[in-house]
Amino acid sequence: MPAARESQLRPKSHKKTFIIVATVIVVVAVAGGLAGYFVTKNNNNSNSSSSASSSSPSATTTSSTSSNKTATPTAGKHFFGYWGQSNDVGPLGLGTRPIDNDQQQYSLASYCDLEYYQTMNLAFLYAFGGGDGHWALDLSSLGRYHVYPNGTSSTELNGDPIDASVFTQVGNNITYCQSKGIKVILSIGGDMHSPYSFIQGDGALYGKIFYDAFLGGNGAHRPFGSAVLDGLELDIEKTDTYYTQEMISLIETVKALNSKVIFSAVPQCFLNGINEDLNTGPVIKSNPEFFDYIVIQYYNNPSCSYPFGFNFGIWTNVTSVPLVIGLAGDPTSAITGGFLNAGQLQAVVDMVWNNTQFLGMSVYDVSSSNPWFSNYSSIMRNALNGEIVGSGYPPQGAFTTEQQYAARCA
Prior knowledge:
Helices cover 27% and strands 16% of the residues. The chain contains 11 helices and 12 strands. A hairpin with a 6-residue loop joins β2 and β3. α5 (202-214) crosses α6. It starts with a helix and ends with a helix.
């Protein structure tokens, strides 16, 4: 491990003149435990081992077939993985990802077994709003779970009915991942084309619905069975008159039911003239105390991403909340740009490593950044552990010409 990182990952040793062997053993054991212990603002995030696995994840790994090994806390930065969208669109949305459908996405437990991640985000609860209580969960190649305004529900994949046990099995995987010390968060919203919205009153309504369906409540519809998620993430990528107040109301409703529920937001990296993300920015600005951390999306946003516009330093002036750099797992996961190769990733890590607000990185998603498709998550985990994963890329330069911008975006 290079010295530049080593000093930040090892506890300092202090020589003593006289000490008995037994005391040395005790001190070393305690120091080793403390060095790996990682605490976020509200002590809600826990860690897993950083040990890498080069083997392909099993498509059939579940809570009953996976090992019972408990992950060891890592001394590195926090790593968040997104799971649920096999994300098989391919470059430029042309459907050309070069792997078979059965290799697109493996079980949640199989990615937890890699022991790269401290948090797994389930993507997405993509439909809700309008005051009628309907909502829908989309887990891509696994299927969709719909709850209708009349209180009935259905499960389907590509329009064909499927058994709801598919989602119950995900619940078993959630519990398994949590047993390894990995937090599991539900991502609410998604891209601007997803059918979600807020009208006045939806915040309180859906705060209670989501609590009953995914957190500590006893709702009639619990896709993941008895599994209790650790928190919710607001990935709201569109806005309207009521959105800000309703997001505030949603969080307040859930927090009133359980103050320990983890909350995060996913703003785009672009900041407007008053230094706000256009969507979740007003909530981050008005109520920073709501959030345990913020995941800033640095892909599909060329104007504020490396190498010409990376604006993490500006974000640290916007809020004091811990910040996560959200990156794409592969060019096929960032169809309008933003994927960083190992050298570019290293340049970004070098720029932010010593910033006290730098909590870690997220990858969207785990299906495009792990075998069979790639080993990018392993590279990211190593970088977050302080290892040098690339070289030859300098810190970003200033954006100067439209030609530079166009060349960067290919």
